[in-house]
Amino acid sequence: MSQPVLSVKKITKTFGDFTAVDQLSFEIGKGKVLGLLGANGAGKTTAINMVLGIISPTSGGVEVFGEDLTKSRIAILRRMNFCSTYTQLPGNLTVRQNLKVFGKLYRVKNLKQRIDEVLGLLEISQLKDRVSGHLSAGESTRLNLCKALLNRPELLLLDEPTASLDPDIADKVRKVVKRVRDEEGTTMLYTSHNMRDVEEVCDEIVFMHKGKILVSGTNEEVKQHFEEESLEDVFIRVARSGDIEAKRLKEAKK
Amino acid sequence: MSWSSISALVLRYLYLYTRNPIRMIELLFWPLVHLLVWGFLTEFLQKHTTDSFPHEITYLIGAVILWDVLFRAQQGVAIFFLEDVWSRNLLNVFAAPVTNADYLFATYIVGFMRATVTSTLLVVLSLVLYSFNIFTLSWALIPFLFNLLVFGWALGMISTALIVRWGPAAETLAWAVPFFIQPFAAVFYPLNDLPAGVQVISKSLPCTYVFEGMRSGLRDGVVPMNDLLMATGLNVVYLALAGLLFVRVMAKAREKGLLTKFASQ
Ligand SMILES: Nc1ncnc2c1ncn2[C@@H]1O[C@H](COP(=O)(O)OP(=O)(O)OP(=O)(O)O)[C@@H](O)[C@H]1O
Ligand SMILES: [Mg+2]
Fold it and tell me: How far is it, in rounded angstroms, from Cα A113 to Cα A133?
């Protein structure tokens, strides 16, 4: 593999005496989509926040575009973006105003045209002059995605981008994500509880359990590993008996 | 520092105010109430006091105007941060390519704009309603205003740092911090009439010298240069310390995941 776009090196995050992320390592090559999976509280969002530099790792490091995140954070952030169910754009501004503000923050060229492009891509052009706070949950998620795509990021972090979307829109969003990956070669880190998303969008997956990697590999490899038919079955098995699986894996390695 | 980031952050704030003109009430209503109360009190005192009564009391209107410059500047900085908390936008901003310096500079500009709106209103109304002319201070007005602005910024950074450290429960600090110091800052009464112990605190605040200087200026027509120099010198120290506190608290926030906690509350 040529130089990875994102390289996470043994990052650990402890809050007091609780370890949220434990020696997590993975890499994503250019144009690949890596799914970060795990039950609620597994440490996915914490890991993403460390890649954004919003949380600093207790130990370990993050390299993006071959550069150390702590050393070149601003230059790196300019070339990446993120979208998360945990954030919203200011509800008291219109859709267009919000995108204008973030477009300027990310120094987007031909901003006006780019705003129209991303709104069209997510099929919410008609909402351009609406107040963001009046959008439905699904529309607001798509607006978040518009913000995330504005600067044509080379690395895109998506934290549950399809949560709160109806099946039709979720399907459209998946298509947009794939289109962006294929047409722009965008590298992505993707978390989702929707295994359909993952099967369709991700090239590789990392399964986390209590902050640690349980298994990683392509979808097929992971399914084979657990001898399960679908990722959904793998997920349920890991969620219900993750500790046993972790122990089994440890012993298998010895 | 990046001008495009700063202007984007300021633009967001302008949209907020132009979209919801009702927000302007906060900028205009309270200062107006203060002006009316202190203005009528001044008129009452002027009518009923003898010459032996300290003359300074009639400068209350000047005090109201100048205090508001400090308060609005502080608010500009502190509310700027809270707006992002309230709209769950905090992570979007802190995950964008924005340095601490960009962020702070944008809050300074917003503080400046808020102070300008309110003080313009107060200056005009005090002239019309009470024939109080702050421009009697002539050139000294500029360094006075600038010092109050800078101290307001410093207090704003301290407020924000405390809010980040202690979480959303500490939100009221955004309004309370300036009033912690108001009793000591000799805003409405001369420094010399404060108890000796309190004077020690007063003398460590840059704004005390501005209010003292204002009274001298209005009374004698001369502004003591010493007061101006003390205010400026102390302000440099406060601004540097407040900036340092802000940067350290932000580093602590990254360590403890404080910003993400805000986002989910
Ligand atoms: N700032 C923080 N302070 C203390 N504990 C935290 C903090 N942030 C996260 N945690 C804890 O770390 C663990 C991992 O949380 P995280 O949000 O990363 O999980 P997740 O995998 O994203 O879960 P979900 O699927 O529910 O989104 C949780 O137990 C959470 O309570
Ligand atoms: Mg999460």
Answer: 24
